[in-house]
Fold this protein.
Amino acid sequence: MTSSLLFYLLIAIIIIVFLIDLLLDLLNARHYTNVIPEELSDVYPKDEYEKSIAYKKTNHKFKMVSSSISLCIMLLFFFLDGFAWVDRIARSFSGNTIVVGLIFFGIIMIASDILSIPSSYYQTFVIEEKFGFNKTSIKTFFMDKIKGLIMMTLVGGGILALIIWFYDLTKSNFWIYAWALVSVFTLTMNMFYAKLIVPLFNKQTPLESGELRDTIEAYSKDVGFQLKDVYVIDGSKRSTKANAYFSGIGSEKRITLYDTLIKDLSKEEIVAVLAHEVGHYKKRHVIVNLLLSILLTGLTLWFLSLFIQNELLSEALGVAVPSFHIGLVAFGILYSPISEATGLIMNLVSRKFEYQADNFAKKSYNGEALINSLKKLSKNNLSNLTPHPAMVFIHYSHPTLLQRIKNLRNEIH
């Protein structure tokens, strides 16, 4: 294969992935106004249902425009030898491979982040504001951007520097050391994310004493779940949308409830949501997902080791001097079809886990309370009740609301 042929293969992959996503979005949009199944007829009042359709259509149109602009910018960058230009800038600062790699990706990431600001700003302060979701201040919006950039520089830059160092030392065997590094980092984040990262963006406080806490503690004792504490996060700082999640392993496990969730749901519904999260722990989903993530990382790095030393990767992007950072960019695009396939498998596993967690909540607490909470959350988030099956199969990490209700009422699974 010539470098020219590889270049056009990269372009073809980018366009094909875009077109597949476009097709899925178009198919999904055609289902927005489908007749709502009888099981979901009580989710939306008529005016709220019309509002949900308008919300979905607005987001669909916005995504079509923003993703098309992003594609055009990316293709222009490729055809104008943008990677070679950035590589020359990076090499003008240093001859050290690690420094050059860090500067190269730093320029790419910062430029990408800056270009994404108008789109993100419009999404937050126009669309989300229009439909009553946004609670983010302009100050919080830009502070989040700055904090994210600092974290990306320190954490992402540190990991990248070590991986390039491993490559310089061991060449094709670098993936083993890189895999060990990323695995340790993944494990650390799973254990301490709520303590290390979340406080940078949100305030977390233990759930105050009272009837809700007493009910949660009583339920936890009944199912043998050692509950160190339940935390409430100030999700209302940014949005009216509600959520809850389980994080950590071992002694660091915790359940976090959004303050908006506590506001929107009754005591029984909140405990039902919590029972679902406990189900993930009891069924070992957190551990399984962690192991799958580590295995997929190892697979990706191994594939990378097979291609990274091929000079064609650099030549295809118009860069005269072969390097790890240029090879990584080209490989990332070449690997995207495999990444899409593994993502599909992970979504299949995730949806199965959601059914299992729902079933645990039903058996250990109250299935109807969980159904009521899911309906309220769908209504408050203006969720799509009639997504296209192809969109669900490829992109949904959770079953649809209808599928979850049927499962909880023993109509499926």
